[in-house]
# Entry
Amino acid sequence: MAPSSLFHPVSEGFFRVLQLPNMDINFKVLVNVGFFIVLLTWILVEFFKQRRTRGDNLSERMNFEGGIKVSTKMVVVINVVTLVLYVGFCVYNVWNLKILSFESLTSAMTWALSSSVTCYVVKIHKMWPLGVIMWWFVYGVLDVVMVFLYFDKLEFSNLVSQANFVDIACLPLSILLCFNAFRYPYRGASGIDEPLLQKEAEFEANVVDDAYSKAGIWSKLTFRWLNPLFKKGRVKKIELSDIPSIPQSEAANNAAALLEESLSKQKNQASLLPNAIFKAIWKPLAVNAFFAGVNTIASYVGPFLITNFVNFLSNKDDNSSSYHGLILAFIFLSAKTVESLSQRQWYFGAQRIGIRVRAALTVLIYKKSLSIKYSGNSTGKIINCVNVDVDRIGDFCWYVHGIWLLPVQVALALVILYRNLGAAPSFAALFATILVMVSNTPLANMQESLHSKIMEAKDSRIKATSETLKSMRVLKLHSWEPTFLKKILQLRETERSWLKKYLYTCSTVAFLFWASPTLVSVVTFGVCIVLKTPLSSGTVLSALATFRILQEPIYNLPELISMVAQTKVSVDRIHDFICEQENMQLVKQHPSKDSNIAIELEQGEYAWDENDQYFESFKVKICDKIRIRKCYKVAICGSVGSGKSSLLCSILGEIPKISGNNIKVYGSKAFVPQSAWIQTGTIRENILFGKGLDMTLYENVVEGCALTRDIEMWADGDLSVVGERGMNLSGGQKQRIQLARAIYNESDVYFLDDPFSAVDAHTGAHMFKKCMMELLSTKTVIYVTHQLEFLEASDLVLVMKNGRIVQSGKYKDLIAETTGELVMQMAAHSQSLNQVKPPKKFNKSYSSKGYHQENQSEVDVIEEKVHYLCHRDEIPEKSQQEETETGRVKWHVYSTFATCAFRGALVPLILLCQVLFQALQMASNYWIAWGTEEEDRVSKDKLIGIFALMSGGSSIFILGRAVLLSTIAIETAQRLFQGMITSVFRAPLSFFDSTPSSRILNRSSTDQSIVDTDIPYRLAGLAFALIQLLSIVVLMSNVAWQISVLFLVVLAISIWYQAYYITTARELARMVGIRKAPILHHFSESISGASTIRCFNQEDRFMNRNISLIDDYSRVAFHNSSTMEWLCVRINFLFNLVFFLLLVILVNLPRSAIDPSLAGLAATYGLNLNVLQAWVIWNLCNVENKMISVERILQYTKIPSEAPLVIENSRPEPNWPVNGKIELHNLHVQYTPSLPKVLKGITCTFEGQKKIGVVGRTGSGKSTLIQALFRVVEPTEGQIMIDGVNISSVGLHDLRSRLSIIPQDPTLFQGTMRSNLDPLQQHSDHEIWEVLNKCQLAEGARQDHRQLDAPVAEDGENWSVGQRQLVCLARVLLQKRKILVLDEATASVDTATDNVIQKTIRNETSNCTVITVAHRIPTVIDNDLVLVLDEGNIVEYDSPAQLLKDSSSAFSNLVAEFMRRSTKG
# Structure
């Protein structure tokens, strides 16, 4: 039967379209039918599935607690509205036109299924099915294409039909549907944000109530959720507490969990980290890709339709309907609105992903830094890893979509060119584009290479700066800071040379970027003229607009390649670090077992990595199995460098085992390292170390560690804040605080590395009795000591020599072995005691006096730096919270920056180049549009010749602009850096005590990098964009004067918006810089104390602290980036409105009053208005935010300086001091006017070439006297004379370079043995070997085949503390100065070594004035004079013999105490 006979003849006309031979089957029909089948299949499958699992689903629905989002309801409404429109259209066609379109029917049927699926999904609380999402996307794309073709009057045969009324009406609805495709229907159920390691229920329970997550679709689209924050910012300065939390997906905890989960699933080790990052972020990346794609497509709508608009304007018929022009104007507005909104969501989404990646990587690096011992990785390198590499990987999220957008953009441009100009010109444009891209590639490779060099140079500079800042006290006391400043400036000069090459390469790339449209347009139009392709002003302007958009992918390719390469370098650096095998085998903590064994030492050999240059030769070898019982007190003794500390580290698992069995430690551990590790924070926080406060235990521990009097004297008691690395505490205070930390921890096994060396005799005796014998009486304690008087109290003594335990046993047994190593050391101890010969009268009164003094000492223990800590009672505000400027960045910051290089002489030249470039660009575009408006208006040769000439001329000005800008950038950056670093080096030591080094490093690295490569281009970019924007407005106003009025209105609104925005944004930008510093400080602090953290099992607490700091930073960064998008959305809309009104005005003006070429040119440039305006606003806000870096650097160029290094008219004689006579006249010293005086009118004379010992109870003013001698603190009254010269009248360099000091904390620098002994390179190798022999270091130095070139690790970590003190002694002996100060110089060496050193000092300094501050009485007993201080006053000053004659003298009491402690047993 024929198809026509299926219907009744009467109805034949009514249903004629449904006759099969005449069905209008096209691409849309095929899509409709395909998705109808897909959706119907899904419904049937779901129906049968529901029948099988009805009970379970009912239970799920009953337990569902999430609410339905507004966006979900909107999706349902849009589906239903679209269905109603298509059904209504079908009914209209049937009823009025008596036809039924198969296309409309299939559309209605598919939308009916889509609406059903949507309603069903909302009812059963599921996510949108993939089939319906694909339908929304495909329909949206098809709808856009059909609407374009409708207004373009093009037909692609029967492939795609023209749009009807419903298609046009549904366009905005389909865009909204696409926007919601990946949005989840329920609050708290976002799978994108769910870490793979957490269950859904757990995740939902942990969701933080943040402003962004609560926001609806419209609020997120327009960033209205930020309004409450802006309101707060208008009335007060924004604080961290005012900023809402970040979404859970960006929280460091969840981000790190996602990344760790991804890492654990990776099998390919080579690309482990990049693959893991991609797996962790692919979902938000896909959503971001959608916005990027929508933005790209929308941006090409303007060039696509500009031909139609110019052709419409070229129609001279004034009576022609303006309807078509208004529709085009509306489409332009819609496209621009979609472009703006999608761009804002794209950029914001990229920032969110970047924040997530940064947080995850920072957590992983921190976790790794706690788990390995840093013998190979310096702190500076790790800090740079976090500061630079992590940021670069986060920034790459901006660029990642360029990889696939590049071919899409080129393809879209070719489609437009093909439509306007034909095949040959299009391929010519493609060829020219590829040529420019290829020419950019070697430049991009060069950029990558140069950038790597810059990073290497920056690493070296930051590393040197970090080490210098940590050692600033030593540098200033030795007057070495000018030399080390010179070294840093040399490293900066190396960095600057690479930076110079890099920036000039960038200038060439910038030239190619701006010249590329010129080259491509000249080639394309040249081919058109050769092939005689007809050109009209419409097609020319469309092509020019396309070339301008094509400029971006041409430029992006080399930048993308460069960014990929830079990111790869950063990823590789982090990958190498994160995936590095841990270079130690941690000793597992075994649960405390029932037996009485606490530690089992097995036979084994321990050494650092054999490939490590710093630890080449030293090994610890345990030859015999040793079992240590519970509650045993085990003493470890031995000479300097024998391996005592290394043995402790081996037991703790800090040194890798290379052979033998594992050491077993039963129970929890506590560790007190020899070099004290103190956290920035309160005294109480340092002692509690994460444990709860038990006041009874706390008070007992504080009293046992002799801290009671210190705490009473401190301004805020135990809530006083300690500076970075305990800089405002004395060595003894630091040791006692960390011992208190260990005891309060109540562990089972204690490891104490020489905790008594930094305190004086009576304090040490008090601590040993109270701590070791009482508080730790039921604990197992292994302690290293040089005070051999503490050996007898031990249950077991281990004697070390050359890394081996040469003796072990009870003290009495070992002392009986006359040829043993311990007996040899005890002989030296006895020799030291024999130097102290109290008179008989003194001996008789010894016991009673000694005992009385011991009790007195228990309430008298207070270190002298107590005054200094009191002086720091402002630290909770100043040290913890960084000082910042408030309000707008001051104009003087801008003017200083602009005039820093060449006094600003090049700035007008750069602006002139930009103006001339813009003028020639517009003139060349107008010329070719005007020339092609009418055929034969000008000859083809003349047309292309003048166009090429003007375009080429504009490119020349661009090149000049780029070169001049790079020149200014290089010079400005260098001047700012020099000003800052010089000011920092000239700052007084009090500045370094109260300023964490991370703040200085943050300015020296992050802020300086911004100044080097960002701010000059950002500032210039703002000026260039403003010139472009104003030129476009002038052009548009020339066509339609009304635009100038409108522009002024829009400008006023924009300025109001910007003023409203900047008050909040400015503070957020400042907080971004401030919140980064605590992360870096926490990193640095944790790395230096990693062994302590691991031993106390505090990794989780420190990790939580790190996560909290990262979240604080992420919270600020998240809102900082979103506030900018808030502003751009609003300003974008205003300028889109200006463009739309321009088009409306042009449409309604009489045709005779319009120059079509000029009007078309205005419309063409108007297409870029929103992009340009966004660029202006973005730069305007970014410039102020980035200028905060300049503000912070300038802040550190104005640090109050020390006294001048050299006073030219008051320089001492070259050989001053000749005699070394020191006179103190009525010397008063106080740290601040508000604090009591520390020294109270001291008057005495240290005769030249005499040995003076300075003793006294702790807190008597000994260290303050030394600081006054070096002018670390200036006298309040009185004066100090050296050889008749008032030291306050000479420069600091002249003073300090004539004095020598060995401080209590020995400081070594990374480098070689030679560079540590002779930093100024003033001495020969022979002289160096001489002092090494005198200081017992020559033998150890010769064992290393590199000898004087043997490397010294950062902070001298490959040397024991005792060896470091010997190096410091050798350093001073090499200088051969007339006045030598020893501040507890031999506190960390054994008695035998101390005896040798004292003999060496006596021999080598026979013609020098030597001032010795000592805890050991033998150190000062043979001095010519002894000065006894008490509470800042002179108690006694005479020879030791005279003072000892009086048994009631203060010096006699000190000797009695020492003798009592030393002769016990």
Observations:
- DSSP finds 53 helices and 27 strands in the chain.
- Residues 481-530 form the longest helix (50 residues).
- The chain has a mean pLDDT of 78.
- The longest strand covers residues 1222-1229.
